[in-house]
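> run fold CDC20/Fizzy WD40 domain-containing protein
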Amino acid sequence: MAQFGFENDIHSILKLDMPITNAPMARWQRKASSSNTSALSALSPGKSANASMSSSKTPSKTPGKNKKQTPSKMGGDRFIPTRNGKQMDVASFLLTKENDPVEANNTTLATFQESQKAWSMSLNGYNIEDAKILHLGGKPLNAPEGYQNNLKVLYSQVTTPASSKKTRYISATPDRILDAPQLRNDFYLNILDWSSNNMLAVALHNNVYLWDATRGDIIFLMKMESEEDYICSLSWTKEGNYLAVGTSDCKVQLWDVELQKRLRSMGSHTSRVGSLSWNDHILSSGARSGHIHHHDVRMAEHHISTLTGHTQEVCGLKWSPDGRYLASGGNDNLVHVWPRVQEGGAGNESQAVRCWSEHQGAVKALGWCAWQPNILATGGGTSDRHIRIWNVNSGSCVSSIDTQSQISSLVFAPNYKELVSGHGYAHNNVVVWKYPSLTKIAELNGHEDRVLSLVLSPDNSTIATVAGDETIRMWKSFELDPVKKKAKDRVAKSTSGGIHQSIR
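> ok
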């Protein structure tokens, strides 16, 4: 029994349900005593109500509530982590001066506005007061003098160099019109050519006439013996002293223009010769049979080689300005590029360098670029109507455009780096294109029938067009500025001079 009594005493000692005499005051007791004390101190006049608050360890209200959101000191708050220091200075100035009298603020406000303008100019490059989304009054803003970062200027009235460049005036009326009676209206013939001596040759049925563009004189050169025969093609030598004439009786004639005398008649074709092109002493001729013949005019046996790439009439034939390639276009819709003729005629000139079949119509219009000798422009007939620009070196088509009209001639005008095209059905006009973008610059209208041929004057300032309406029109559309013309003449004089071999 004594053992059980001892255990009961131990359990009674370890029990925690009895009050603890030396323990600290409970939280609810502290709150009750603090509320009673504050009520009593509020009734007693001699004691401050803040004494109990300061003596109390636990505040009566949750911290953070009823607390002002404005920070006690300047420099930024916890809601906006980054803020310009100058903006805070402005805000502080406005807050401190808003309750001051208006008279006292006049001078300080002016000072503030000046400093604000200076800050805006240094930070943004312009006065922020003038930078509005819709600026209805005043001139457009310009960058301040000496300011380098023009990207921060909102807009400017100063024109860019591209927009300030004036486009030249191109007259829509021809400078001169010549009558061309009995003109043969045949798309496949090449009956107009302009020499380096400023002589324009034109074939009127079976006659050849020359027009001296310098003096305005008209010279009758030759007439074929048979009335049934007609002139099919004309081509001047580089020197401008001799004229090659292709005829319908399968001949190629050479004429001395100064003496008005026929030097020789070369027969090698079996059909009419509709296209001619010179390369020094080599004369290339294209016929209706599809054959192209090379003639060495210095030799008695003039026929040195034959090119057989076309199956129908060769209506376009042009040597490149550097003499490396011969371009040919035919009624079979093909374009061939042939290599230079080797000395003596022994070589691979009978193999075409390039052959393009993209055109869907007869290719008569051929034009080599004077300042890029590897660039060739070709134009298709009525069923194609496309101008295509080719890179002969790579064989790729650089660009193309649909002109919506039959193309009979193409000429590059070097004075302004432009391309000129002559058109038949349905527009019957001349179009000037910017190269290489092929954007249309001007249209020259006036012909009442299709334009058959188009040639450029030796000074590259005028184009002559002959059409089925039996007129030849001169369009003075590419005149250089006087300053550029003088510079070009000086360069031409410095590079001119050389020995030219005549035809014997």
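The CA atoms of residues 16 and 23 lie 12 Å apart.
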